[in-house]
Amino acid sequence: MKLRIAVLAGDGIGPEIMEQGVAVTSAVARRFGHEVEYREAICGANAIDLAGDPFPEETFRTCMESDAVLFAAVGDPRYDNDPVAKVRPEQGLLAMRKRLGLYANIRPIQTFDCLVHKSPLKDEIVGGADFICIRELTGGMYFGPRKEGTDEAYDTNIYSRHEVERILRVGYRYARARRNHLTVVDKANILASSRLWRNVAMEMMKEYPDVRTDFMFVDNASMRMIQEPRFFDVIVTENTFGDILTDEGSCITGSMGLLPSASTGEHTPVFEPVHGSWPQGKGLNIANPIAQILSAAMMFEYFGLNEEGNLIRQAVQASLDAGVRTPEIQVEGGAHYGTREVGQWITGYISQNL
Ligand code: IPM
Ligand code: MN
User: Fold this and answer.
1) Is there a single domain that holds both residue 272 and residue 252?
2) 3-state secondary structure the chain
3) Catalytic: 187?
4) Which member of 68, 141, 188, 322 has the lowest number of beta carbons within 10 Å of its beta carbon?
5) How far apart are the C-alpha atoms of 247 and 154, rounded to whole Å?
6) Is 86 one of the annotated active-site residues of the chain?
7) Are residues 91 and 131 in the same domain?
8) Does the annotation count 142 as an active-site position?
9) Atom 7 of ligand 1 has which residue's CA nearest to it?
10) Do 224 and 322 lie in a common domain?
11) pLDDT bucket at 83, cuts 50 / 70 / 90
12) Residues 247, 108 within the same domain
């Protein structure tokens, strides 16, 4: 297969983890005889500095002309405490999602046996947890009309039937490929937008009699997720709830640095870590490259290249088992491995293991 991949490394630790994500992608491509062509493009704070726009037109074009986008992270503390900044790095991320029509964000939450103790939750609660959160990504409060006054401000949580239906279909597709259980998370006891979600879901569930559909209020779901994470198979929810629940979900896995995601929709799909740009870690060779590397696995799987994806997963698992881990998940007294060393170990495993 010939793959054109747009590489958007962004800010903070982005370039460091991307280097490893690209190395792993190339190693897999070599092993399986795929031809990969990379095209680098700027985004985030870096792009504001260089082009005055966190998602410049040229970057958009590069994405549109590629088969997939590997994205790392955007964000810079220069903008975080500046409420009057006119452009922000995060706007680049939202522009990318909107312009590429990436309405479905797939965030798998899994545990690794050897890391269960890293979760702040008890082993017997998180052990074996394995679910996917499907977050609607181009609607809701993130994109609804807003007013930002000094005495009054609001955001609008707006959803159309079309938007709800298409994301629910993604949910059902994943549920059918897994354990046939879909949980629709909303706040239908309060929000009109949630009642639309629920009504549409109640109509659609008749088309999927083989899937068990249940409904859960978001406050309850956030509790259930840490009380009994094994309850869940596929969660589908709106943009804002999905943002919040997936950060909570990272506590099940034990480190944000392990969570990949895929954003798919109308145009080129994007594969990116769930975590952000971690500016404090920049340049220190301590960021965990695994979320980026597993995002590459999701990219191969998106193209139906499951063996390729599997080999990456196997290599990641082997690195964890061998104790080749970045500091935040290293066992006490274990050797020190940085971003580069972990990435190189995984790349080496992929290149050699036949
Ligand atoms: C995420 C991030 C983004 C979001 C930020 C950086 C805009 O938190 O991808 O979850 O809120 O969607
Ligand atoms: Mn988030």
Assistant:
1) no
2) CEEEEEEEEECCCHHHHHHHHHHHHHHHHHHHCCEEEEEECCCCHHHHHHHCCCCCHHHHHHHHCCCEEEEEECCCHHHHCCCCCCCCHHHHHHHHHHHCCCCEEEEEEECCHHHHHHCCCCHHHHCCCEEEEEEECCCHHHCCCEEECCCCEEECCCCCHHHHHHHHHHHHHHHHHCCCEEEEEECCCCCHHHHHHHHHHHHHHHHCCCCEEEEEEHHHHHHHHHHCHHHCCEEEECHHHHHHHHHHHHHHHCCHHHCEEEEECCCCCEEEECCCCCHHHCCCCCCCCHHHHHHHHHHHHHCCCHHHHHHHHHHHHHHHHCCCCCHHHCCCCCCCCCHHHHHHHHHHHHHHCC
3) yes
4) 322
5) 24
6) no
7) no
8) yes
9) 90
10) no
11) confident
12) yes
Residue where a domain stops, chosen among 258, 286, 302: 258
Structural domain including 313 reads 1-102+266-354
69 and 109 part of one domain: no
Dump pLDDT digits (tens) for 219-274.
999 999 999 999 999 999 999 999 999 989 988 988 889 999 999 999 999 999 99
CATH code where residue 235 lies: 3.40.718.10
pLDDT of residue 14: 97
Residue 341, amino acid: E
Q: What is the mean pLDDT of residues 153-181?
A: 98
Cβ burial of 354 (10 Å; 0-12, 13-18, 19+) is exposed
Point out the catalytic residue in the list 233, 243, 337, 349.
243
Among residues 38, 98, 247, 282, which one is catalytic?
247
Give 243 Cα–ligand 1 centroid separation in angstroms: 7
The average pLDDT across 80-99 equals: 89
Q: Look at the chain and report how many structural domains it folds into.
A: 2
For all residues of the chain together, what is the average pLDDT?
95
